[in-house]
């Protein structure tokens, strides 16, 4: 029987970044992989809903296990916390804080992390990840800043009309790579903006992405719009980009 305790021996640094764009301090959680050495360089995963990715998604434990037992490449994770009061206004493309949040992410967060940690700065070495609306803002960040982001993990992304129109407006998205998961039990999901059939919305988004030649890894499987579903799927998403 393996000793699972070693999966919990990892470094997670809590930090705070003062943002001019958001006019507030934003809490960060930074995971440093086993064997971390500042003389080396590492891929980096930027997670929306940072607190949830660490507490409910257990990304630190999963990634540590994958690195120690499955030869996954050691990777740094930056979880960006969000105040739930502002979550929809920051993550939804029509939200009144969305533009400011995206500018914070691209113009403040990346330089801050890159000046303090040995993360690689090529866009292919950055992954931006999120669940539900976190998946939405992750995709929009790639569309708005293609020189910075080209790899997206979407766990049950909220890809509604405005996002599909944004995809449709692009000429060619063959540079974009998306890992897209949707649970087949997500046909009646209640959100702040109403009740949605996430399966239908994701299938329509997939059609738009396919028409623009996105490198799309699309998965449908039984699952609800909950971390209980996404947590068990993180392993496969990490392997897709890092193995």
TrEMBL record:
InterPro entries named among the record's database cross-references: AB_hydrolase_fold, Esterase-like, Mycobacterial_A85_antigen
Protein name per its UniProtKB record: Esterase family protein
Species whose genome carries this gene: Paenibacillus marchantiophytorum
């Amino acid at each position: 029987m393996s000793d699972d305790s070693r999966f919990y021996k990892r470094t997670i640094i809590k930090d705070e970044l003062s943002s001019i764009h958001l006019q507030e301090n934003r809490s960060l959680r930074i995971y440093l992989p086993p064997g971390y050495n500042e003389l080396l360089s590492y891929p980096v995963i930027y997670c929306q809903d940072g607190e949830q990715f660490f507490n409910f998604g257990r990304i630190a434990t999963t990634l540590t296990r994958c690195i120690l037992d499955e030869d996954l490449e050691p990777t740094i994770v930056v979880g960006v916390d969000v105040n739930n009061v502002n979550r929809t206004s920051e993550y939804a493309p029509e939200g009144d804080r969305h533009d400011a949040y995206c500018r914070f992410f691209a113009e403040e967060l990346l330089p801050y992390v890159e000046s303090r940690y040995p993360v690689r700065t090529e866009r292919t070495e950055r992954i931006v990840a999120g669940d539900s609306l976190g998946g939405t803002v992750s995709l929009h960040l790639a569309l708005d800043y293609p020189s910075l982001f080209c790899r997206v993990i979407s766990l049950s992304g909220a890809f509604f009309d405005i996002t599909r129109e944004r995809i449709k407006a692009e000429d060619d998205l063959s540079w974009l790579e998306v890992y897209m998961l949707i649970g087949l039990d997500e046909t009646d999901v209640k959100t702040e903006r109403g009740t949605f059939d996430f399966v239908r919305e994701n299938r329509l988004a997939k059609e738009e992405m396919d028409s623009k030649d996105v490198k799309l890894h699309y998965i449908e499987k039984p699952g609800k719009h909950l971390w209980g579903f996404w947590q068990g799927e993180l392993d496969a998403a990490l392997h897709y980009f890092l193995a």
